[in-house]
Amino acid sequence: MYMYLIISLIIVLIIIIFIDKLLLNNIIENFNILTEEEETYQETQEEETYQEIQEEETHQETEKEETHQETEEETHKKPKKKTHKKSKKKTYQKTEEETHDNKIIYSCVSNQNYNDLCKSNNHPTYGVYSINKCINDLSKYTVVCKNNYINGNHYPPNKNEIITPCVLNNSDFNDTCKYYNTTNVPKGNSKNGFGAKNILTGKNGDCYNNDGTPNNNKSRIICNYNNSYGIPNIKKTYNNINYNDFTDCLISNTNFTSKCKDIINDNNAMAVEIMGYDCNPNYLRAKCITKNNYNNNINMNYKS
């Protein structure tokens, strides 16, 4: 009886061991299969991931290359276009400056002596061409200066004329003309016959105060050999007269002796033969001589 139980237990134990072994092998096989599948899956995933990374990098490099090419193209084109524009603008500005006869423009300047402004920076022959209110600041002015202009009027150079600076209106304009005269005396004329042709007062003569207002107490004088105190001289009719020995045409009550002393620079000078000659009515000339030569010249005969 006991033997039978023992044998039965052994048999059952063997069966159990066998069944366990089968189950364990099955589990191991399944585990290996799962492990292989997992590794295969991981390898597949890694390969796909690597391919995706490569594709992404390739795409990014392509985009970078395209962007770089576009940037180079734009960079190459843009400066060329910009340089062309700039060069064209410079050329136009230079041409405009030449076309406008070298005007000097002072934009939006404060009130001042505009004549001095135009003649500044070594431009002694420049004058006011125009004065206009500044658009950006109505308390200031834009001043345009131009060569040989006074108050917008052109006074071209003339070898027998000069234009004086602004002088006080109580000055002797003929004497002022002689003082500033730098011309060569034309044949048939006298240095003493240089007189006032036109008188430009205040703004008309570019005479300004330092606050920009016209100075009407001063005038600029245009001088030549054909006028005296603004009156045209009568044409000379005495061809044998040396006009350098005569005064210019002066008002009849002038102290001619005093004028002669200045002309020949001799305190013994005398004024003789004071007559109208070629002067306007109420104006006279005087011949200037020294007392030593008086007797030799008093009977001088004038021929036309």
SSE layout and pairings?
Elements: H1 2-99, E1 104-109, H2 114-119, E2 126-133, E3 141-147, E4 149-150, E5 153-154, E6 162-163, E7 167-168, H3 173-180, E8 195-201, E9 218-224, E10 227-228, E11 231-232, E12 250-251, H4 256-264, E13 269-275, E14 283-290, H5 294-297
Antiparallel strand pairs: 1-3, 2-3, 4-5, 6-9, 7-9, 8-9, 10-11, 12-14, 13-14
Topology as a string of helices (H) and strands (E):
HEHEEEEEEHEEEEEHEEH
Low-confidence stretches: 75-99, 297-304
What gap, in angstroms, lies between the N and C termini? Answer: 195 Å
Largest β-sheet summary: 4 strands, antiparallel
Secondary-structure content class: alpha+beta
What does this structure look like?
With 304 residues, this protein is an alpha+beta fold. Among the domains are: 89-154, no CATH class; 158-233, no CATH class; 235-304, no CATH class. It is 41% helix and 21% strand. It has 5 helices and 14 strands. It has helices at 2-99, 114-119, 173-180, 256-264, 294-297, and strands at residues 104-109, 126-133, 141-147, 149-150, 153-154, 162-163, 167-168, 195-201, 218-224, 227-228, 231-232, 250-251, 269-275, 283-290. Strands 6, 7, 8 and 9 form a 4-stranded antiparallel β-sheet that branches. The chain is rod-shaped. Residues 75-99 and 297-304 have low confidence and may be disordered.
